[in-house]
Design a protein that fits this description.
about 150 residues, alpha+beta, Ubiquitin-like (UB roll), Translation Initiation Factor IF3, 2 domains, 4 helices, 6 strands
């Protein structure tokens, strides 16, 4: 058993431990149930739980979160439409989100795979001040994709 100051009191029967905790006006908490004999500590359990939740909240504040946004284009997407999509990508990157740019090939468009790669490379070069290419253009079935991360 351990008292509120951190001093070891030795092995004490349960009824005596409960009486000592009651004398201090605190709770008897089993800290290590698997030890032989089990270790108990006299502490304010409500305050202990409160401090644990505060530590979790602090850890959550410090971790950075991001989302993976997706922009879909086709190999025959026009210049103006492409500029609009680039505006969306810039907004996502400004919010510190990663962006997955996907070129979708339908039907016979699969023969235009070089056009799709050029499209992705164009997007990457125009956004090189704002973004880093995290995953270079890669073909998966009828789609070609690339992932951009904010600098």
């Amino acid at each position: 058993m351990i008292d509120p100051d951190g001093n070891q009191l030795g092995v004490i029967p349960l009824y005596q431990a409960l009486a000592k905790a009651n004398d201090f006006g605190l709770d008897l908490v089993e800290v290590s149930p698997n030890a032989q004999p089990p270790v108990c500590k006299i502490m304010d359990y409500g305050r202990y739980k409160y401090e644990q939740t505060k530590k979790k909240q602090e850890a959550k504040k410090k971790q950075s979160t991001f989302q993976l946004k997706e922009i879909k284009v086709r190999p025959k997407t026009g210049d103006h439409d492409l500029q609009v999509k680039m505006g969306h990508i810039k907004k996502f990157l400004a919010k510190r989100d990663k962006v997955k740019v996907t070129v979708i090939f339908r039907g016979r468009e699969i023969t235009l795979s070089d056009r799709g790669r050029e499209l992705l490379e164009t997007i990457a070069t125009e956004l090189q001040e704002l973004a880093v290419v995290e995953q270079y253009p890669k073909f998966e079935g009828r789609t070609m994709m690339m992932v951009l991360a904010p600098k």
